[in-house]
Structure formats: C-alpha cells, structure tokens
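thought: user wants a sequence for this fold. calling inverse folding tool.
action: design(structure=
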C-alpha cells in the first residue's frame, strides 16, 4: 500500500477508533493528594516511597509499547533484566506473539489513576514513555496529538516524580524547526518547531528538565533521528518512507517516494536506537552533563538511499509523488545531527551506517517474504 494511503488510514484510525486516546474530551481530572507542586524544595525529592536497591533489576513499564519501537525495546530489556521485569502497555490489543512473549497490560496515559495503580501494584522503578502521535499523524489531528503528547506527558511526569521513578522520554529531530541550525544541529540551539509533534517534544524536554532540577526527578531524554526497522511498522511520521522503501522494493520492485530526492534527514537503525536507550538509562548520573541528548548514526537523502538499495536490487523503479505536508516538515528539520555530547559523556557509538542498514533490512525482509511464499 503506498505510504500516503497508509498514513491516511492510520490518521483515520486514530480519529475513529474508540479507546485510541480519543476520549480526549474526557481527560481524567486528577484526584490525588500529592502533587509535585506541593514539594517546596529540591531536597524534598527524597520522599521517594519505592525502596529500590541498585543491585536489584529495575522493574520497567513501557507506555505506547505496541508501536514501532516498544516491542523491540521490551525484548532487549527482558534479555537484560528478566522477562517478568518488563511490562509492555498500550491502548491497543497486542498481537498473539507479543501477548505471549511477556507481561502486557492495558494503559491509557490519559487515565492518571489507572497509570498510578499500575506503577504501584507492579512496584515499577523505570518508566519508558513511548506513547505519542508522530509528526504527520499529529498534523492530521492536532487536538488528539496535544492531548496524548502534552496532557499525557504531564500525567507521566507527576507519576514518575511521585513514585521516584527513573523516566525515559524520547524526543526527536522534530523538536527543532526552520530557524535552528540544520547542518549540523547541536544539542543546544534555537528550537522553534512548526508541528504540534515538535512543539510537544520541545515541551517534554523542558518539562522533564524542569522536574529534574525542581524535584530531583531522574529524567533522561534522547532525541532520536528517523528510526528504521524491518519487523515493526512506523506509526505515521515524516521519515516513514525510509522503512516502506525496503518492503516495496522486495515485494513489488517499485517504490513511490513522498519526499523529494534531495531531502536530507538524520536516520538510525532500530538496534542502535534501542541500545542507546538502554545505555543512557544505565549511565551513572554523574556522567550525564545534560538530561537531553542528540544521538545520531547516519544522514541520507531518498536518492542516496535508492542508490544503495539498487546496489542489491538493480531493477528497483522509483517514482516521486511529493506529500506537501511531509515535505514541509522535512524541510524544517535537521539535515545532520551533532551528537558529540552523547559520544563524550556516556560513550555513545552507533554500529550501523547506510550500507549495513540496507543489507540488514533487505536480508530480513527478503527472508520473511521467502517464508511467506513457501507457507
Ligand atoms: N519511530 C521513530 O522514528 C521515532 C523517532 C523519534 C522519536 N520517536 C519517539 O519514540 C516514541 C515511540 O515511537 P514509535 O515510533 O514506537 O511510535 P508509534 O506511533 O509507532 O507508537 C506509539 C504508540 O502509542 C500508543 N498510544 C497512542 N495514544 C495512547 C494513549 N492515550 N495511551 C497509551 N498509548 C497510546 C499507540 O497505540 C502506539 O502503539 C514516540 O514518543 C516517538 O515520538 C520515534
Ligand atoms: C523523526 C520521528 O520523530 C518520526 N519518525 C517522525 O517522522 O515523525
């Protein structure tokens, strides 16, 4: 299915599906006796009620875990901390293989009381907050994106502060805008994003850092580039073309690209992204000179990606049908990301450049499609 149609379908689904977070108008009003607003100085942050010895494994909750990144992260964290120490959650129904691979729980991040109950009953110590509406879907439904990405984040921050959790919230290249330096984009510079997604992520960075300084919240944030994965589908972003091309190339030998051939964006293979997430979560606090870091691996245009894929599949045919919404977003985003602070502070290092990415994606999708043909 062409990407544009797939996106429209995702956006419509987000608008129409009951329980997809659309109960925005009924956002839960908080009835709690504690609020970080009641904490009067940073030293009071020692109220943390959960006893968690450093020698224990963390007990992790992942919100929005059924999207492109959550299932892979759960797999990585379960390998490290044990299957039952990592709980996936979402508002969607998990596929059978995910349901049987470890603990799964329903959680709508707009339901503050339910979220708190899950954290308390499961003695959660780390929270990875993945729920969000991405850039293109967000522009198609600003009210829902504002509710999930901003109101939802407020719930997460309060619960994390209240229960002394280590909190990871991903940000994005989309937290920058047309007035930011684009080549390269450093950690600290002008941030005036022009999408609701970008505005909500810049807000998340600032709120997380504020809670860190004000209440001692252990907030950690990475700005991810566009993430490319073979066994999970992107949720409606501007960088989705760089995933879809591999599926179409293997299955039909044709690809219609919705960005111009010379649109350069930072990108990363999913294994690097998930490993970075674990590494920054495990980094000793004293190594973190900042709480929000750019991370980077490679940067390419559709034309450069096509040329690399054509080294393996020379018959691949490309056409361009530009989506004006996505093109305008991409034109306002960084072309190259400066991640030198992550590399210096906690030794971030990517494994996959463009050739390894293309080889890995084609191997995975190619072998999957062979299995499908046989069965
Ligand atoms: N994938 C990327 O390229 C990329 C790049 C930069 C940053 N990020 C960030 O990483 C995180 C995960 O990204 P992803 O690609 O897996 O996203 P995704 O869109 O694939 O998945 C998001 C998930 O959030 C869930 N969700 C929506 N409303 C919810 C609600 N009210 N309560 C609970 N869950 C809800 C959805 O059901 C979905 O499964 C997001 O915060 C995203 O902004 C992703
Ligand atoms: C870059 C990232 O945040 C997401 N893949 C998007 O395009 O919206």
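)
observation: tool returned 375 residues.
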């Amino acid at each position: 299915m062409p990407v544009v149609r797939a996106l429209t379908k995702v956006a419509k689904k987000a608008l129409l599906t009951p329980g997809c977070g659309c109960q925005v108008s009924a956002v839960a009003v908080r009835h709690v006796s504690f609020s970080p607003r009641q904490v009067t100085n940073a030293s009071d942050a020692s109220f943390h009620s959960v006893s968690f010895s450093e020698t224990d494994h963390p007990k992790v909750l992942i919100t929005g875990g059924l999207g492109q990144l959550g299932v892979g992260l759960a797999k990585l964290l379960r390998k490290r901390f044990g299957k039952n120490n990592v709980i996936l959650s979402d508002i969607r129904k998990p596929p059978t293989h995910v349901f049987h691979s470890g603990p799964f729980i329903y959680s709508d991040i707009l339901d503050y009381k339910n979220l708190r109950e899950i954290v308390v009953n499961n003695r959660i110590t780390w929270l990875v907050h993945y729920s969000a509406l991405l850039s293109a879907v967000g522009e198609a439904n600003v009210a829902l994106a504002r509710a999930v990405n901003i109101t939802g984040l407020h719930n997460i921050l309060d619960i994390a502060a209240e229960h002394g959790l280590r909190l990871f919230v991903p940000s994005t290249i989309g937290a920058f805008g047309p007035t930011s330096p684009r080549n390269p984009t450093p950690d600290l510079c002008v941030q005036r994003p022009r999408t609701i997604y970008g505005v909500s992520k810049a807000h998340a960075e600032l709120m997380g850092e504020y809670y860190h300084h004000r209440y001692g919240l252990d907030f950690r944030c990475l700005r991810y580039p566009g993430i490319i994965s073979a066994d999970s589908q992107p949720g409606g972003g501007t960088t989705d073309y760089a995933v879809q091309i591999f599926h179409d190339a293997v299955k039909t030998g044709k690809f219609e690209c919705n960005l111009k051939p010379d649109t350069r964006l930072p990108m990363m293979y999913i294994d690097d992204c998930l490993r970075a997430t674990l590494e920054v979560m495990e980094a000793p606090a004293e190594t973190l000179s900042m709480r929000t870091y750019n991370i980077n691996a490679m940067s390419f245009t559709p034309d450069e990606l096509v040329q690399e894929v054509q080294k393996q599949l020379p018959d691949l045919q490309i056409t361009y049908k530009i989506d004006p919404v996505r093109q305008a977003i991409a034109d306002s985003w960084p072309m190259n990301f400066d991640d030198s602070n992550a590399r210096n502070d906690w030794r971030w290092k990517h494994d996959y450049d463009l050739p390894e990415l293309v080889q890995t994606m084609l191997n995975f999708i190619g072998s999957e499609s062979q299995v499908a043909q046989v069965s």
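thought: summarizing for user.
answer: Here is the designed sequence. Confidence is low (pLDDT under 50) at residues 1-34, 37-54.
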